[in-house]
Amino acid sequence: MSDPWQRIAEALERLAPAPLAAPDFSAEAFAWHTSPDRLQPVARVSRVDLGLLVGVNRSRDTLLENTRHFARGLPANNALLWGARGMGKSSLVKAVHAAVRAEGHDLKIVELSREDLPSVQRLLGHLRTAPYQFILFCDDLSFSHDDEHYKSLKAVLDGGIEGRPENVLLYATSNRRHLMPRDMIENEAQAAIHSSEAVEEKVSLSDRFGLWLGFHACDQDQYLAMIDGYCAAHGLKVNPAELRAEAIEWQATRGARSGRVAWQFFCDLAARHGVAF
């Protein structure tokens, strides 16, 4: 009869996930998944050309220069892109990545979902030893009052005892400047014994990003310029007066103007004119 401790050890070994095989980093983009851990290559990244992003010139230039520095092995900052929804935050990250690669840098991008933040140290362990530079991209990042995932994010930004890997940079997008609802921060301040400490714990998370890039709702001229850019890029010719009237009517029915609304209108317009892309 075998040793019971040996049987327990063998059972635990069978339950433990197999270690992640050495990733194949030949692709330019990856998505991180868990259960089991794996870096899934992305065959085709969904993105728009950098030149089609209108009304975000300052954020575009700042993020592009920061990314160039990183790709060259120079110091660079983690970046938080925050603000109005649909104004191209995630599109800018992906477009900047493509632009820097087009300049000859073999820069990789890895998408990490908020739900997988607790596994980020395992991911960093694999990226740390790879001979490439990586943008770790966390899209639509936010936290609720009972969410402890933000502590895992702090580990990425601060790096713990090992420090953040020199070949990894974090770009995150959020509708919230401090990544948490204002009422959550205010409630923490009211409920805590030391209110300032409670607020500091929450707000300090966004302070760990070296770059804060704000995105704000566009005006009508910017909205129409976005649509004109899409039409020019895809060779769609429409009477200017007709295009303007239809575009304004479209945004009026949506009750908002944004890059996303402009793209949705263009998709409808292109389909009606038989233009595929």
Radius of gyration: 22 Å
Backbone shape:
elongated
Number of helices: 10
Mean pLDDT value: 85
Order of helices and strands: HEEHEHEHEHEHHEHHH
Supply the CATH class of the largest domain.
Alpha Beta
Query: How would you name the CATH homologous superfamily of the largest domain?
Result: P-loop containing nucleotide triphosphate hydrolases
Low-confidence stretches: 191-195
Main beta sheet: strand number and arrangement?
7 strands, mixed
Tell me what portion of residues adopts beta-strand conformation. Answer: 5-15%
Coarse structural class: alpha/beta
Straight-line distance between termini: 68 Å
The percent range for helix content is 40-55%
Care to count the β-strands? 7
CATH T-level fold name of the largest domain: Rossmann fold
Major sheet: order of its strands? 2-1-4-5-6-3-7
Q: What's the structural domain tally?
A: 2
CATH architecture of the largest domain: 3-Layer(aba) Sandwich
Concise overview:
The chain is α/β, with parallel strands linked by helices. The protein is built from ten helices and seven strands.
Would you mind describing this structure in some detail?
By secondary structure, the chain is an alpha/beta fold. 45% of the residues lie in helices and 13% in strands. The chain folds into two domains: 29-215, Rossmann fold (3-Layer(aba) Sandwich); 220-272. It has helices at residues 4-15, 57-71, 89-102, 120-128, 149-158, 182-191, 195-207, 220-233, 240-254, 259-272; strands at residues 29-33, 38-41, 79-83, 107-111, 133-138, 168-174, 211-215. A seven-stranded mixed beta sheet has the order 2-1-4-5-6-3-7. Residues 191-195 have low confidence and may be disordered.
